[in-house]
Amino acid sequence: MARKQRKEPELLFSGPPTTDPTALHRALVGATRADVTVGGYLVLAVNSDDDVLDDSTLKRIAVSRGGRSTSTVDTDDLIALVGALRVEEVTDFLCMCMGDYVIEFFDERNTLTEVVRIDLPSGIESRHWFGGARLADPPLLHSWLRSHGFELA
Predict the structure, then answer these.
(1) Strand 59-72 to strand 87-90: parallel, antiparallel, or no bridges (unpaired)?
(2) pLDDT tens-digit profile of 68-98?
(3) Sign of the C-alpha dihedral, residues 68, 71, 75, 81?
(4) Highest taxon of the source (predicted)?
(5) Nearest to 115 by CA among 56, 73, 54, 64
(6) Dihedral of alpha carbons 40, 44, 115, 33, sign
(7) What is the DSSP string of 60-114?
(8) Closest to 42 in 3D by CA, of 105, 111, 110, 119
(9) Entry pTM
(10) Under a CB-based contact definition with an 8 Å cutoff, are residues 35 and 104 in contact?
(11) What are phi and psi of 127, to 5 degrees?
(12) What's the angle, vertex CA 136, arms to CA 10 and CA 79, rounded to 5?
């Protein structure tokens, strides 16, 4: 008998973006687990005929995992990670790369609630913003990644 393939958790969203740099942190309030992976993501329209840049289009985040990963459920560790993701400003720069790291956040029901892309050395992207954002304190995130076994170039 063939093994059943595990379905990847999927994050669907639509609606207008914001320029509020605190939008991500409000979304992370209920996070109880974070999975961090070398890789990145792309935002795709659920219906390939739809315009992915249209605010009303239903979109999905397609995660690409390509290397080392770690997971944390430790409350203090999650607080440190979320703190390291604080941004100083949202930009309108729309990066077309996959990113360097992807962080998936889950709630107490193990439901995927948020996906964040890290573009080293100081970029971060989230579904909440049209473009990227600049980290308030990039060395804080770099330190967190190193302490979890990731080698930064």
Answers:
(1) unpaired
(2) 999 999 999 999 999 999 999 998 887 778 8
(3) positive
(4) Bacteria
(5) 64
(6) negative
(7) EEEEEEEEEEEEE--HHHHHHHHHHT-EEEE------S--SEEEEEE-TT--EEE
(8) 119
(9) 0.91
(10) yes
(11) -65, -15
(12) 55
Angle between helices 75-84 and 138-147 (to 10 degrees): 140
Planar angle of CA 133, 136, 140, nearest 5 degrees? 115
* Cis peptide leading into residue 121 (ω within 30°): yes
* 135-145 residue pLDDT tens: 999 999 999 99
Mean pLDDT along residues 9-29: 92
Write out the two tokens for 150. Answer: 């990731």
Give the CA distances from residue 59 to residues 43, 47, 54, 78, 109, in Å, rounded to whole numbers and listed in that order. Answer: 7, 8, 10, 27, 23
Q: Domains of the chain by range and CATH?
A: 12-147 (3.30.1490)
pLDDT of residue 31: 96
Query: Using an 8 Å Cβ cutoff, are 14 and 56 in contact?
Result: yes
Residue type, 150: F
